[in-house]
Amino acid sequence: MAEAARRPGGALNPFFAPRAVAVVGAGREPEKVGRVIFDNLLAAFGGPIYPVNPKAAEIEGHRCFPSIADIPGPVDLIVVAVPGRQVAGVIEDAGRRGVKAAIVISAGFKETGVEGARLEDELAKTAESYGMRLLGPNCLGLMDTSTGLNVSFAGALPRAGGIAFMSQSGALCTAILDWAKGAEVGFSKFVSLGNKADISEIDLLPVLADDPRTTVITTYLEGIKDGRGFMAAAAYASARKPVIVLKAGTTNAGARAVSSHTGTLAGSENVYNAAFRQSGVIRANTVEDIFDFAVGFSSQPLPKGRRLAIVTNAGGPGIMAADAVERQGMWLADFQPATVETLRAGLPAEANVYNPVDVLGDALADRYDRAIAAVLKDPHVDSAIVLLTPQAMTEIVQTAKELIKQARQAKAKPVFTCFMGQAEVGKGIKVLRQAGIPNFSFPERAVAIVRTMVDYTENRTGPTEEIPRFPVDRSRVEAAINESGKHRNLIDAQALGVVEAYGIKVPRTELAHTAREALDIAAELKYPVVLKAVAPELLHKSDIGAIAAGIANDFELRRAYREILSNVDRFMPDAELWGVTVQEMVRGGSEVILGMNDDPQFGPLLMFGLGGIYVEVLKDVSFRLAPITPAEAKEMVEEIRSYPLLQGVRGGARADIEAIVDALLRLSQLVVDWPQIQELDINPLLVLPAGQGAVAADVRIMMSEG
Amino acid sequence: MKSLMLLSTEPYSGKTGLSVNLVLEFRSRGHTAGYFKPVGNLPTRIDSTFTDADAVFAKKALDLTEPLDRLCPHILTSGESRRRLKDGAEDIVPKIKIAYDSVLNGKDLLILEGSGHMNDGRLYGAMAVDLVGLLDARAVLVVKLDNPYEIVDDVLVASDRLGGALAGVIFNWVNANQREVIEELVAPFLARQGIASFGMIPRDESLLAISVDSLTKALGGRVLCAENHGSDSVETFMVGAMGQEQALRFFRRKSHKAVITGGDRADVQLAALETNTACLVLTGNYMPPATILAVAESKGVPVVLVDMDTLTAVERTESLIGHLRVHDEEKLKAMRQRMDEYLDIDKLCEAAG
Question: What pLDDT, in 10s, does the model give residues A29-39?
Fold first, then answer.
């Protein structure tokens, strides 16, 4: 576990449970930020609150202090809402006074440019020198419903609940609070992160993970500076409770906005998907996702499996729900015979007693009650979705009440509803919501929530594996790296040597400077052979005819040699041609690509795909961050859409998939051992039929500078 | 009294740096040596004098007392070429001879710099390769390596033309992979034809660099941050117009680069700042976001705002970087070092007499 996750959450205690709070910049004008925070604090916080303002004697009957030094009692937390330039001085005063926690609401820092960035840096350093933790600057503050603490200017404290929310966007905080009020959703803690000069999601994830009042953690992020720190903290948290993250700005347009707004790299979609997956984070794509997922997780037990029962009073919605179940990789539960019998006895003859169960349009509350009771009792059912359309006779509120009763009896099985409509069904939905049963307007949405919960359960209960360490020849890699020189590129024999040192098989390869030399080498390697021009600038050899495969004799070799040289001369006259390699030809096998790209925030990102059009045109590739476990390597191979081609189709042989997994694991170890490697492509890795292994035919490595 | 004329088979082959440094070398050996460029090919205006940029540089670097119209008596321009093609020519050789004699007067030795290509000036009856005989000089051919086999033709043609006046060849800008061919095949072959080799100077990209300050000046730009990094060197440039992820991979490929992009492309700017970048050149006069300037400042990368479109900025930058012009004291010194290291100076002195 990374340092961030090991850091004791206790250091952040004063932020959520301070004994006394000072508000620096609280004034007499009621609309000013400092005053709004002071008033918000007054509304629910029980401890002493000290306004600090040299220009006022008292505010709302509270004595005002000219500076922090003048406050008589202990102060655990200060909230700063003075102009940006004065903040460093306030932090200095607080540091001397021994205050260990500060929330800086003030803006005018990194977001305003060079001077602001300097101020922010100074601020962080001052705080650090006093061992003080700092939230913000340029944030909205925080709220904790369990202690009644509202040190923010985001409005009133929301109702208490199990959802923790932290956000890099202040504006999103206020919008969500307003939405939560309308939807009667409760929160445990609410944190606005601001510029993240000190405290970031990495510090807060373990705190929220250990907070008994929080059942689900939700986060809105734009940029993450320390990707590995984030993964460690997220893995720690998601092993304890669901962590839902909305990461914005992963499209080109979004990345531009994030870059300009925060000054941090937006990061690629692929790397975030891999990072989230490997640390158990549930990814939300919309704000609606965040809250639908959060409501699902915080109100219902986790489903044990994918088997879902549907109860409906209308055929159409039932069919749509069945479609959604299959599309989203869930299963429609097969009822036990006893359940079918019970349903048949309790429902009219025209009713459908198989899944989806149709209780018919004229169903009253009692019919729903019997059907729901029967399906929830069935051990083949892991969760249930109850659909209701308002017919003239439908007992909406009564049905809701019966459903709540059954859901409570079922205990371990989650129940979701989809009361479709608004005006008529509204009363029923209100009753359900108060009982903690989430209602979604359409069946597809309800299924999506159950699926997300099942994914989380499976991910969390999956086996944990060791990352294997293979015996390797490090000195050989070191020598090759030292040789790479100014070009920073390792190509052909050098690059093949590097992967071979890590136990990946390569064909025999030798460099020729003349056709004569090439003939001698070919005689030794035995035909057929492959010829390739070697030049650091040459990345796509086949595009310019700088490679010839399947050369069967001396005559063909001479001709190919001449052609390759003239092609390089013609298409890349500036290339620094080192010679032509003669390579043993590997016959048969499927071409796959293994790659690595060093991500500036997350480190080495591994890539896998089938060679040729599958990668280039169809983008059929999988990604994981190194190091990977054997299970992750296997997932990488199985996850691509063209995986069945490797398994053998239409009588073709099954490829040696184990050899791919092995090569991925070795590649993972290589790039972790040698952080100087910035990009590496094994293209292609020729995979022979099962049991015969795989050979890296061409490798290109780019090193970082220095 | 002897003179040695440096000729080349293509422009930007390193003649100016070698010429000026050779004068310094001969001076250091106790000779009175001077510089002369018979025909100028880099027109420029200094005060009201129309002259040649190499001559201006040599005059300054060598503290020459002769006026510029003596150091370089005739300048080729396209306007003049047009007139000549229409109306025929005035003979410029007499005026060159007069200037040459006056510069040579009182010196042990003159280094003559030929214009861009050894055939330049034929139209005026003053082809560089012919001036060698006209001025009773000896010639050194500076060959900038492209293809080691093709240059043999150029050397042989020059030798046919010059005969015994060709003292030998200097191979410049030699790629590591071409060394062997030159050493083992080309030089021995030329030796058999009686053409000496004075050595080969390896390729060195850093000589192509210019400073951030000179780039800023040449583009008429304004530096927005990290002003103290103006002397950092720019060896190459890249243009960014792709998404952030692609930009990051692209920018990694080159170091010490200027990245040219729009002021409104925060994503590209940030990707460039993540890699080894000497400066950002932001076009269109769009101020970048404050957050970007903060990052650039903290990384010590100057951001240069220019009031031109990206295409124009690229064209200007291209004309500045990548063509070796030794009009800079630092580069001259670097060149001298390389000359000492890789050339047989004694042999060259001998050839000059």
Answer: 888 899 999 99
